[in-house]
Structures are given as structure tokens and as C-alpha cells.
Amino acid sequence: MNAPKLPPTDLPHLSDPVPPGVTHPKTIKSFVRRAGRTTTGQTKALQDLGPRFILGYQKQVLDFPSTFGREAPTVLEIGFGMGEATAHIAGVLPDTNFLCCEVHEPGVGALLKRIGEQELTNIRILAHDAVEVIDHMLPPGSLDGVHIFFPDPWHKTKHNKRRLVQPVLVAKLAARLKPGGYLHCATDWEPYAQQMLQVLGAEPLLKNTATAPEGWADKPEYRPLTKFEKRGLRLGHGVWDVVFRRV
Ligand SMILES: C[S@@+](CC[C@H](N)C(=O)[O-])C[C@H]1O[C@@H](n2cnc3c(N)ncnc32)[C@H](O)[C@@H]1O
Predict the structure, then answer these.
(1) 8 A C-beta contact, residue 111 and residue 125
(2) Alpha-carbon torsion, ordered 113, 106, 64, 89, to 10 deg
(3) Which of 145, 196, 218, 236 is deepest in the core (most CB within 10 A)?
(4) How many domains does the structure of the chain reveal?
(5) Rounded distance between C-alpha atoms, residue 100 and residue 157, angstroms
(6) Gap between the Cα atoms of 95 and 111, Å rounded
(7) Which domain holds residue 211?
(8) What integer is the mean pLDDT of 35-43?
(9) What is the pTM of this model?
(10) 151 lines ligand 1 (CB under 6 A)
(11) In the prediction, which pLDDT does 123 show?
(12) What is the average per-residue pLDDT within 4-15?
């Protein structure tokens, strides 16, 4: 019989209790570090392009003009996965800087590969927990937008506390947006979509851009339909976009 797999010691246990009144305690992460093979192409991209496009995580505020080599509107993306949407959006919005966080190494390699293939210059990557990046590297009123596309849904009720879109994180993001800056979330999991609407709706600094009474936004043009999303739509699954602006 196979021995049961033990969780790595540096990860919090999924069954850790949440202290009362705390929605997103520091010990509960919105991700688990998945095993996954980094392909030869991704490894090469990490070696060749990593030094130019990956920023080191540090507990020091980031200076955007020197990081990107120009003054331009800056959008934060949390959890870009394999970077398909990220690279597309960076290509269609060349005048915007994209600061992109992802903890999954093959995903970082995959986005670097796309950066090389599409000759993109407006992306910088932080291969680190976005929550710590927000806490330590992003000053108030510095962002023009935030993208959170298809965040891990953490379906089971006992895992819901790991969801990224929680009041504490949303308050931090709202504080880092410029007035008029936007927070755009998308998901294919309806209960999470409802949570997004409710949490963003309860944040006093944010206002829904939707005109439809249900509160959902039309999919903004810049967000492409990824392979994963197209498959879901073919299977009859829904997708919900939620776009709020800082007042
Ligand atoms: C379900 S995937 C979606 C990826 C992508 N946005 C897409 O639409 O295909 C969610 C990703 O978020 C990343 N993630 C979750 N929490 C994160 C955090 N706190 N900081 C950085 N990345 C995170 C995970 O590693 C995972 O790759």
C-alpha cells in the first residue's frame, strides 16, 4: 500500500482554523505550490529572459518608471497561470505596463516564452505571493488597474477561506488604485462570482461599473477568451466578469 502523502512542511494545513473576525490571515495562502514539469522551452526562457523580466521580491516600494523604463499606466495581474491572457492583453495595450504575479514556476517560464515570441517589453514578473507584493512593494494610489482572472475557486466550503477575493485583500487593492482605477475579476464558478460581487460591493472605495441590474459587466474587449474558457463555454458553463472602479 502506498504511504499517504504528507503536505510539505512550509505550507499551512488546509484544516487550520481561521481566527474569528479574520478573513484572510497571513498563514492561509491562496495557492498551494503545485508540482509541475518545467519544459525545456520554459527553462530556456527562464534562463535567457528571466534576468530581464523577473523582478526580485523585496520589502521595499517599487519605483514604476525605473522598473519599466518609462512612465505609463500600470496594471497589476494576480495569478497569470500560463500567461495566455496576460501576453495577449500586453500585446493589445502596448502603452500600459503590466506587473504580473505568479508563484507557479512553469507558468512563469511559459509567460517568459510568450514575451520572447511576441517581443513584448511592457511586462515585468514577480514570481512571488501577490499578497506580500501588495503589502510591501506597492504604494497607495499607484495602480491604474488590477486583473484577477479565474482565481483558484477553492470549491469546498472548508477551503473557501483561501479564496483571493476577500474583504481584506480587496481593501488593500482599492487603496492602491488611483481614483478612477479599476479592479476586474472574472470567474467561471458562480458561487465565487457572487462572492466577488458581494465583497467588491461592500468596499466603500469601489463602485460597480455595470449598468445591468444583476451587477455583472460585459467582458471588456481586452480580455481574450482563453483555451480553457472556450472549452468551458462549449460545455455550457457560464463566465462572469466583475469590474469596479475606485471612486
Ligand atoms: C486557476 S489559475 C488561473 C490562471 C490564469 N489567470 C487563467 O485565467 O488561466 C490561478 C493561478 O493563480 C495563482 N495564484 C494564486 N494565488 C496567488 C498569489 N497569492 N500570488 C500569486 N499567484 C497566485 C496560482 O498559482 C494559479 O496559477
Answers:
(1) yes
(2) 60
(3) 196
(4) 1
(5) 28
(6) 19
(7) 61-246
(8) 93
(9) 0.90
(10) yes
(11) 98
(12) 35
